[in-house]
Design brief:
Layout: H1 2-19, H2 32-42, H3 47-61, H4 80-110, H5 117-139, H6 157-174, H7 196-213, H8 219-234, E1 247-250, H9 273-279, E2 304-308, E3 324-325, H10 336-340, H11 358-361, E4 364-368, E5 374-379, E6 390-391, H12 395-398, E7 421-425, H13 427-439, H14 448-462, E8 494-500, E9 506-511, H15 528-540, H16 545-555, E10 564-565, H17 596-601, H18 603-613
Parallel strand pairs: 2-8, 6-10
Antiparallel strand pairs: 1-7, 2-3, 4-5, 8-9
Helix pairs in contact: 2-4, 2-5, 3-4, 4-5, 5-6, 5-7, 6-7, 7-8, 7-13, 13-14, 13-15, 14-15, 15-16
Length: 628
């Protein structure tokens, strides 16, 4: 009994020591960097969050992938469970960042802070600003002052953005670049290793991004905030201009927060029709010069439209390739297309995503009749197509080609195997922002053409693609945009050749470039801003689908084809058979609905959020900074 009592007392003492040890102890002992690290790592998204948010929401909403993996955001639908998972997780990431700031400030007040603690607070504020922008860009109104022990009060999007710009400005000014860190601190920062100069560059570039987000709704504020960055950072290029300064975090294989956001093998992630229309014809570089001998016989002339299958492919959309199957490879294509996406059947490609046995490698599929009988077998090997999202009605079960992994170009394996660094801000984006600001007449340290062309070079370098004569090309893509900065001639209709998919009979038709009513009433397809956003869209693929969605919501660029409407779409009531050739914001998703859990746990906050949103809690309600 004596021995037992002695051991019990010793155990109690150890138990008390554990209860006052590192993180669970008190404000003086807690390490601020642990909370920052937890927030950044968490935001890489474990597979549960990544698949539902990044793959099933952001990629199809931002038109970097067709919406065929079980999601339906492209037609205005949502899944409350998916949204709830993301809402909970982004709240946790913000909670960790807020805790880092609170603990750091308490340590300073108590006189127990380390020399580098004030800098850690600024880093946490910069990272928190990004997270708040991500959350707001998904839902709209969010709490500015959250995580203070009570249910937070929501703020409108204007208040959120003004707050974020002020936070970034103040945090940037307070970063002390002369501070020397202890040797073990760097490993607690998976992005920059607590290189404060790089954190300041990220903050400045992020300020540029958020400032230009307000360009359509609040142009004076957008300009003043953007030029404020230029006044302090422009002369020294104190923003992200090289890949070494990019905000990116190394992914790791397995199932954790660091697992690749695109790594789930069952997610097809095929090329979107939007991106395909931007790729084909752009840049003047020939497929024949990009691919080997085995592909040459599959290359089609530039005026080839494909095989017509009006009974099997949707025609009720403004996609310029509607109704056709492209039975080969385009003569001219942006060379980054083949670096990003696989050619069906190209099994010799080490980056070909053959992850699901025959589903990924079988290229022969059938077209069927209304009874379900096979009427033609089509081989998709060495072809290049993209499915238009939407309601295909009876044509959907009759067409096995467009809904199958092995028949469509899909995101390449290097982005799926958790070996890359997930990128949050690349150097090309800084230059595209500078180019847009210059076009808008704002003060910038570099002219629009130089910034635009530098951005494209940075994108080509990242994708390890030869630039060649790309920058001088006057070749139009399928939506009427060319690359060359000084080539702003608007495109005209062109005569295209095609064949009947069943009889092989050759025919011609005059094809007009699609009209984008969301930008300058559809009268302009090839001006400087269209070129900038087109190139920015391609460069942001595949890591930044939320930003391609943001740009389209903000500017109406680039051209997004309407969802197919072979049958009415209940979640897109404004889209009808009478208007599917026009563009309208009510044809595209504008935000995510708040999860039902918010209303159930914080009814007052939910009510405030809806009041600040200025509309119904629906997918089609535009945010404050977006087109209406």
């Amino acid at each position: 009994m004596l021995v037992t009592a002695t051991l019990l007392l010793a155990s109690c003492k150890k138990f008390e020591e554990i209860n006052v040890n590192p993180v669970a102890a008190n404000d003086e002992q807690v390490q601020v960097e642990y909370f920052i690290n937890s927030s950044i790592i968490g935001a890489q998204m474990n597979p549960d969050v990544a698949e539902r948010s990044f793959v099933l929401y952001w990629k199809p909403a931002g038109r970097q992938a067709a919406d065929v993996d079980g999601g339906t955001i492209s037609i205005g639908e949502h899944n409350d469970q998916w949204t709830g998972v993301y809402y909970d997780q982004v709240s946790n990431w913000l909670n960790a960042a807020n805790t880092a700031i609170q603990i750091g400030n308490k340590q300073i007040e108590a006189g127990t802070a380390k020399q580098h603690t004030p800098n850690l607070i600024q880093v946490a504020r910069i990272w928190r600003a990004y997270l708040m922008s991500e959350m707001s860009d998904n839902f709209g109104p969010i709490p500015v002052d959250a995580f203070n022990g009570v249910n937070p009060e929501f703020n409108d999007v204007k208040t959120v953005y003004y707050h974020l710009l002020a936070e970034l400005t103040d945090a940037t000014q307070k970063l002390d670049l002369s501070i020397t860190n202890p040797g073990n601190l760097a490993k607690q920062d998976p992005a920059y290793g607590y290189n404060y100069a790089k954190w300041r560059k990220y903050a400045n570039s992020l300020r540029m991004r958020l400032a230009i987000r307000l360009s359509e709704v609040d142009p004076a504020k957008a300009q003043s905030e953007f030029e404020a960055v230029m006044s302090t950072a422009g002369a020294t290029n104190d923003f992200i201009i090289n890949l070494d300064d990019a905000f990116q975090v190394q992914e790791k294989d397995g199932w954790s927060d660091l697992s690749g956001v695109m790594s789930r093998s069952w997610d097809t992630q095929p090329l979107s029709a939007t991106l395909n229309n931007l790729f084909v014809g752009l840049g003047g570089i020939k497929t024949a010069d990009l691919l080997g001998a085995e592909f040459q016989s599959y290359i089609k002339p530039a005026n080839w439209l494909g095989q017509s299958y009006p009974d099997h492919f949707t025609t009720k959309t403004n996609d310029p390739a509607a109704g056709f199957w492209f039975n080969g490879l385009p003569e001219i294509i942006d060379p980054r297309a083949y670096a990003l996406f696989s050619i069906p059947g190209d099994l010799s490609n080490p980056n070909y995503p053959a992850q699901n046995s025959g589903y990924d490698t079988i290229t022969k599929r059938f077209l069927k009749n209304a009874k379900g009988d096979n009427v033609k077998e089509v081989d998709a090997k060495y072809t290049w197509n993209a499915k238009t999202d939407g309601a295909w009605g009876a044509k959907d079960p009759m067409n096995q080609l467009v809904n199958y992994g092995g028949t469509m170009p899909r995101i390449n394996m290097q982005f799926r195997n958790s070996t890359q660094k997930r990128l949050f801000f690349g150097p090309w984006e800084t230059y595209f922002l500078l180019a847009e600001a210059s076009v808008r007449g704002w003060n910038t340290p570099v002219d629009g053409q130089t910034a635009y062309e530098t951005a494209i070079r940075k994108s080509f370098e990242y994708n390890k693609v030869n630039l060649g004569a790309y920058l001088t090309s006057e070749s139009y893509n399928r939506v009427g945009t060319s690359v060359a900065w000084n080539h702003t001639v608007e495109p005209t209709s062109r005569v295209m050749e095609y064949e009947d998919g069943f009889t092989g009979a050759k025919q011609t038709t005059t094809v007009a470039y699609p009209k984008n009513d969301l930008y300058k009433n559809g009268a302009v397809k090839n001006d400087h801003l269209t070129k900038i956003i087109t190139q920015k869209f391609i460069a942001q693929t595949p890591w930044l689908p939320l930003e391609t969605w943001n740009d389209h919501r903000r500017t109406g660029l680039p051209f997004f084809e309407n969802p197919a409407i072979e049958i009415p779409i209940q979640t897109l009531p404004a889209l009808t058979e009478a208007n599917y050739k026009t563009s309208n914001v009510q044809f595209f998703p504008q935000r995510l609905k708040y999860p039902s859990s918010l209303k159930n746990t914080n009814a007052a906050g939910y009510g405030q959020a809806l009041s600040d949103l200025g509309g119904k809690d629906e997918v089609l309600t535009p945010l404050w900074w977006a087109k209406k």
